[in-house]
Amino acid sequence: MQFQVPQFVETEDKIVGPLTLKQFIYVAIAGGISMLLYFMVQIWLWFILSIPILGIGVGFAFIKVGGRALPAIARAAFYYVWKPQTYVWQPEKQEAAKSKEQGAKKPDEKPAGLSLEEVLSGFALHRTWQRLQTGAGKISPGLFLGKSQDRYAIYRKRSGELGAARRVDYR
């Protein structure tokens, strides 16, 4: 028994002449906005405003960057700017431990618990990272002269981004 396998599954159907439905909607919306502006503003202002509006509509309809449509790229750029990014660092030792647990255990392997060296290096790394973020631990010349040491506080912006600001303690 033979079956026909559909080909070109990812291509969109041409619904309005040589245009797909999405392309037609983008061009129609840009044309509709341009037509509304024609009746609402003066001719010279309509001409100035219509060129970028029609350009954006045609760009959204036909331009592809790296095989992706322009609306998808615009959406990704919007999410990149407005959503906070969270970067999680995980040491490579955990990945190696997981891969070892999945395979057969060898008799000369260490037990799965943490060693004292790993604990101390983790604390030292955490403390160093905290000092680097807050600016604490710097030796300032005013420290020996009785002046206050610069301190920095970490705060979160409305966009979710972390920032650092100089902390001032008034006495």
Describe this structure as you would to a colleague.
The chain contains 5 helices and 6 strands, in the order E-E-H-H-E-E-H-H-H-E-E. It is an alpha+beta fold and 171 residues long. Among the domains are: 14-82, no CATH class; 130-171, no CATH class. Strand 5 and strand 6 form a beta hairpin. Helix 1 (21-40) runs antiparallel to helix 2 (43-62). It starts with 13 loop residues before the first strand and ends with a strand. The model is unreliable at 139-146 (pLDDT under 50).
List keywords for this structure.
5 helices; 171 residues; 12% strand; alpha+beta; two-stranded antiparallel ribbon
Query: How many strand elements?
Result: 6
Give start-end ranges of low-pLDDT stretches.
139-146
Radius of gyration: 30 Å
What is the H-and-E element order? EEHHEEHHHEE
**Strand residue percentage:** 5-15%
Nearest-integer average pLDDT? 76
> Percentage of helical residues?
40-55%
- Which structural class is indicated by helix and strand composition? alpha+beta
Morphology: flat
How is the quaternary structure best described?
Answer: single chain
Lateral strand order in the biggest sheet: 1-2
Quickly count the helices.
5
Terminal Cα span = 89 Å
- Main beta sheet, described? 2 strands, antiparallel
